[in-house]
């Protein structure tokens, strides 16, 4: 058995759904595409960590010869209905940016260990453009919603790759759009019109981007501010968004399939509460962390997202929770709680806002209360 065959067999034995191998040559088209998007992607292109450099693998690691691309199917079990529309499926599945002490993090580490045992030198810390690598390795095609798709599974996959210094047998690329001809279901369904052309996404309008990346300190080009017109369309999404995948014809077979329940998720769904997230304790954050440890580290951003979700629900039963949040030590939390109170509206909402305005010291919060009073 050749090394290539050994690698593929071991990856499949670990549970990966597909594994393919491509060269370590430049992803020049990816670089061109990202740079052509201008200010929409300045947070990425101008990031001090230079993530775009990972598209030029050989510049970072001249000895690199091959990229092993693997796809994990995270939709093998069902997702609780109560979490759909709140937490993206990929995060519920605990398989993205996973710490090595979790099973989905250990799987990748086992693959790395196997390659080292076979004498392969690993290129660590290279930010590979995963969707491009997977298509070039022949395991996925592109979707107009900017996701990668595996035949027979759909887009509910997580991709990972490993750079090695060994020359292997390479697979035929499948760098093509696999969507039905003329289908624009994802573009029509996107609440914020973030998919402005087929295969083109404005991340700053993407609900998932705003729930996950809108944090101070992530980049000089990103802040914690979420524009009001985006908030209005975020629904109850507090961590990710699956709308463009849910409407896709290529995902319907899996979405309609009768799947086994995930007992861990059932338990977590019983613990989940927008009110508890809004006024999140450290204990509650630890409890929910396995579903949401990919991007957000500070609880104030979870609280902000919960406030937006509650405001969009428009349920007056949450006013007492929002009133408590108006006393939070974080101005960001108070600011978005004020927005939510104004969104809910009514006499009691105005009364809460007026009372809090008299006590508030932060200009950003006072400004939001004024706007909320006008809306309420």
Please summarize the sheet with the most strands: 4 strands, antiparallel
Low-confidence stretches: none
Percent of residues in helices: 40-55%
Please identify the structural class as seen in this structure: alpha+beta
Shape: elongated
Termini separation comes to 70 Å
Computed CA radius of gyration, to the nearest angstrom: 22 Å
Strand content: 5-15%
If you average the pLDDT, what whole number results? 96
Strand order across the largest sheet: 1-2-6-3
Please write the string of helix (H) and strand (E) elements. HEHHHEHHEHEEEHEEHHHHHHHHHHHH
Structure description:
This protein is an alpha+beta fold and 376 residues long. Among the domains are: 152 residues, no CATH class; 102 residues, Alpha Horseshoe (Leucine-rich Repeat Variant). Strand 7 and strand 8 form a beta hairpin. Helix 19 runs antiparallel to helix 20. The termini are far apart. 42% of the residues are buried. The model has no long low-confidence stretch (mean pLDDT 96). Keywords: 4Fe-4S, Iron, Iron-sulfur, Metal-binding, Oxidoreductase. It comes from Pectinatus haikarae. This is Epoxyqueuosine reductase. InterPro entries: 4Fe4S_Fe-S-bd (IPR017896), ARM-like (IPR011989), ARM-type_fold (IPR016024), QueG (IPR004453). GO terms for molecular function: epoxyqueuosine reductase activity.
């Amino acid at each position: 058995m050749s090394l290539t065959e050994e690698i593929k067999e071991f990856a499949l034995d670990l549970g990966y759904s597909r594994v393919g191998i491509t060269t370590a040559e430049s992803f020049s088209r990816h670089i061109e595409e990202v740079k052509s998007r201008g200010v929409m992607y300045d947070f990425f292109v101008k990031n001090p960590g230079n993530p775009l450099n990972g598209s030029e693998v050989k510049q970072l690691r001249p000895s690199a010869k091959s990229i092993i691309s693997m796809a994990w199917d995270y939709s093998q079990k069902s997702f609780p209905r109560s979490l759909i529309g709140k937490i993206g499926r990929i995060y519920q599945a605990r398989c993205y940016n996973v710490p090595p002490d979790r099973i989905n993090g250990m799987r990748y580490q086992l693959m790395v260990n196997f390659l080292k045992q076979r004498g392969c030198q690993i290129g660590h810390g290279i930010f590979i453009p995963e969707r491009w690598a997977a298509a070039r390795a022949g395991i996925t095609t592109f979707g107009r919603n900017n996701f990668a798709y595996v035949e027979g599974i759909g887009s509910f996959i997580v991709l990972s790759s490993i750079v090695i210094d060994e020359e292997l047998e390479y697979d035929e690329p499948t760098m093509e759009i696999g969507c039905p001809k003329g289908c624009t279901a994802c573009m029509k369904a996107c609440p914020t019109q973030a998919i402005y052309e087929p295969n083109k996404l404005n991340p700053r309008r993407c609900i998932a981007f705003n729930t996950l990346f809108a944090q101070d300190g992530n980049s000089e080009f990103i802040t914690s501010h979420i524009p009001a017109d985006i908030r209005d369309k975020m629904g109850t999404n507090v961590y990710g968004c699956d709308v463009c995948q849910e409407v896709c014809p290529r995902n319907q077979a899996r979405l309609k399939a009768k799947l086994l329940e995930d007992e861990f998720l059932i338990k977590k769904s019983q613990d989940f509460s927008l009110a508890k997230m809004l006024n999140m304790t450290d204990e509650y954050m630890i409890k929910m962390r396995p579903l949401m440890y990919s991007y957000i580290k500070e609880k104030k951003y979870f609280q902000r997202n919960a406030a937006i979700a509650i405001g969009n629900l428009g349920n007056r039963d949450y006013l007492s929770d929002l009133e408590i949040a108006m006393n939070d030590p974080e101005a960001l939390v108070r600011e978005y709680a004020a927005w939510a109170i104004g969104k809910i509206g009514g006499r009691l909402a105005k009364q809460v806002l007026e009372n809090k305005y008299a006590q508030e010291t932060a200009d950003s919060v006072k400004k939001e209360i004024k706007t909320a009073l006008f809306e309420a």
